[in-house]
């Protein structure tokens, strides 16, 4: 068990450092901290001007969504960059569980996403004047963490698809854009058609954003718990799906000798 | 005349090259439509169904800006990765004239965003494409796109100086959408953003296109200011590009990231 935890934890951290070796503090701050904050401000001012919802709705929803960029792309990179850099074969030759290796890789990305979400929410609350009840903070932190984890596993699922299809970055880009539309973060769910609402229910962020809004409104953890549980279920479902797809596509790529085909 | 021909041929060449990338095509096909859908539902939720054309036009302009920003930001870097930067810089023409067609091509590719959002709005949401001044709209859109292409040259030259230009391009998308009033009226923003908006060609270009579509004001002054600021950007970008090229030649760093 200790060996497995070490594989998941240490392996994840090493892979995170290796795959992010190209980044710099300027790139991190610009892309992952400042970008989501301006996205939040854009929708907050638009929503304010159209009278769709108050600032709290946009700050909370977009803060949860802020985690998605790093986590979805990170999860995708965890698989597809191995292939791009020509190291996927080495990983798949490992005598250890590849499921544990890849699932473990999501953890650093989720931690990164949590940091981004917390930073975005804090900055936006200070800029736009949102007051969050102190007793809601632990629940809010937990909600953001679960959302980040769900996004990470969602990204890993997309990364697994990248073992089979070439243009996985296209899928990631479109998925991130769809999260803006379908998760009810910017358009209240009641304003969306039924099929969009149902699709949104199956995506990460939707339930976490709702839970976070209840916590910020001061409704208490009990009121947010069902939505938080739903987000956790979504995270688990994507983790299982990612593991399954990785197994199937690994076997398929061995059989067809298409492991390093780009 | 030869210069204009070179710019036109160069822009066509780079547009063709951009159109060969499945990733570029699919991203350009899908993302603006998602943005337009989001804008339509937001305006509907806000009880502003009468402003749906404004939402579609605004989303289209956002797509044009994204194309210019990422295209211009990556203009020099992409040539470097493709191994063609040295050949471009060796051309017996000022470097600005060689890079300008690339930025114009990204703006031209971005026109798809405008066409797609309007077509999407018409076909799916029944938004009537009744422009207040169709002729002015037909002139304002390409005028705005050419202006943004020229602004792109300044961005491209600035980004050459920065080691991590990607960080800036990733950061600049939403702020320019916001400050230029593409969907959010500038009057709804804090007062200190006004002077920033006033010096951006995107603000005046978006204003001209919106005025032509909705009849909310005179189009030509806005378009004129957009093109005047863009020309100033072109001149500044040309100076910077020459400076950067000479510095890179002297330091032998042209091919280095």
UniProtKB/TrEMBL annotation, chain A:
Chain coiled-coil ranges: none
UniProt-listed PROSITE patterns: ABC_TM2 (PS51012)
Keyword Transport applies: yes
Superkingdom of source: Bacteria
Record keyword RNA-binding present: no
Segments traversing the membrane: 26-45, 57-79, 106-128, 140-161, 168-187, 228-249
Subcellular location: Cell membrane; Membrane
Domain ABC transmembrane type-2: 22-249
Family the entry assigns: Belongs to the ABC-2 integral membrane protein family.
Name of the protein described by the UniProt record: Transport permease protein
Major subcellular site: membrane
Pfam annotation, one family: ABC2_membrane
Membrane topology, from the record: Multi-pass membrane protein
Keywords recorded for this protein, A-Z: Antibiotic resistance, Cell membrane, Membrane, Transmembrane, Transmembrane helix, Transport
Species the sequence originates in: Micromonospora luteifusca
InterPro entries: ABC2_TM (IPR013525), ABC2_TM_bact-type (IPR047817), ABC_2_transport (IPR000412), Nod_factor_ABC_transporter (IPR051784)
UniProtKB/TrEMBL annotation, chain B:
Sequence ranges assigned to domain ABC-2 type transporter transmembrane in this UniProt record: 16-211
Record keywords: Membrane, Transmembrane, Transmembrane helix
Membrane topology qualifier: Multi-pass membrane protein
Domain of life: Bacteria
TM annotation in the entry: 21-43, 55-76, 97-123, 135-162, 174-199, 219-239
KW Transmembrane helix (keyword) present: yes
Compartments where located: Membrane
Record flagged with keyword Transmembrane: yes
InterPro entries in UniProt: ABC2_TM, Nod_factor_ABC_transporter
Name by which UniProt lists this protein: ABC-2 type transport system permease protein
Species for this entry: Micromonospora luteifusca
């Amino acid at each position: 068990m200790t060996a497995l935890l070490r594989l998941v934890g240490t392996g994840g951290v090493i892979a995170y450092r290796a795959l992010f070796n190209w980044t710099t503090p300027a790139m991190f701050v610009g892309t992952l901290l400042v970008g989501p904050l301006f996205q939040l401000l854009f929708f907050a001012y638009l929503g304010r001007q159209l009278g769709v919802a108050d600032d709290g709705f946009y700050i909370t929803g977009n803060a949860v969504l802020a985690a998605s960029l790093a986590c979805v792309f990170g999860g995708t990179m965890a698989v597809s960059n191995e292939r791009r850099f020509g190291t996927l074969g080495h990983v798949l030759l490992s005598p250890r569980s590849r499921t544990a290796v890849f699932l473990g890789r999501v953890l650093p990305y989720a931690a990164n996403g949590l940091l981004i979400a917390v930073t975005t929410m804090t900055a936006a609350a200070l800029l736009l004047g949102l007051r969050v009840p102190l007793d809601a903070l632990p629940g809010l932190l937990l909600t953001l963490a679960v959302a980040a984890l769900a996004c990470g596993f969602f990204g890993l699922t997309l990364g697994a698809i990248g073992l089979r299809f070439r243009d996985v970055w296209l899928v990631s880009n479109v998925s991130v854009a769809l999260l803006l539309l379908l998760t009810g973060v910017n358009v209240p769910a009641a304003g969306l058609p039924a099929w969009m609402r149902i699709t949104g229910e199956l995506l990460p962020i939707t339930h976490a954003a709702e839970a976070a809004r209840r916590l910020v409104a001061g409704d208490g953890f009990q009121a947010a718990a069902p939505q938080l549980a739903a987000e956790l279920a979504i995270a688990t479902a994507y983790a299982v799906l990612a593991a399954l797809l990785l197994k199937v596509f690994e076997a398929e790529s061995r059989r067809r000798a298409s492991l390093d085909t780009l | 005349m030869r210069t204009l021909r070179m710019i036109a041929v160069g822009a066509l060449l780079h547009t063709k090259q951009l159109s060969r990338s499945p990733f570029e095509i699919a991203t350009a096909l899908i993302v603006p439509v998602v943005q337009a859908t989001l804008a339509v539902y937001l305006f509907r939720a806000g009880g502003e169904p009468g402003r749906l054309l404004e939402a579609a036009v605004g989303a289209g302009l956002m797509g044009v800006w994204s194309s210019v920003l990422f295209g211009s930001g990556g203009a020099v870097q992409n040539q470097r990765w493709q191994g063609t930067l040295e050949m471009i810089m060796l051309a017996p023409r000022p470097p600005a004239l060689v890079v300008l067609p690339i930025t114009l091509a990204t703006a031209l590719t971005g026109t798809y965003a405008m066409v797609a959002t309007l077509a999407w709005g018409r076909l799916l949401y029944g938004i009537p494409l009744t422009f207040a001044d169709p002729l002015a709209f037909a002139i304002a859109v390409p005028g705005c796109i050419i202006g943004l292409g020229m602004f792109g040259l300044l961005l491209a030259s600035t980004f050459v100086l920065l080691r991590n230009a990607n960080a800036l391009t990733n950061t600049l998308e939403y702020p320019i959408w916001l400050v230029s009033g593409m969907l959010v009226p500038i009057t709804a923003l804090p007062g200190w953003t006004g002077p920033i908006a006033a010096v951006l060609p995107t603000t005046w270009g978006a204003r001209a296109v919106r005025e032509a579509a909705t009849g909310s004001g005179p189009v030509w002054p806005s378009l004129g200011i957009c093109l005047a600021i863009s020309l100033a950007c072109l001149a500044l970008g040309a100076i910077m590009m020459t400076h950067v090229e000479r510095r890179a030649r002297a330091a032998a760093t042209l091919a280095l990231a």
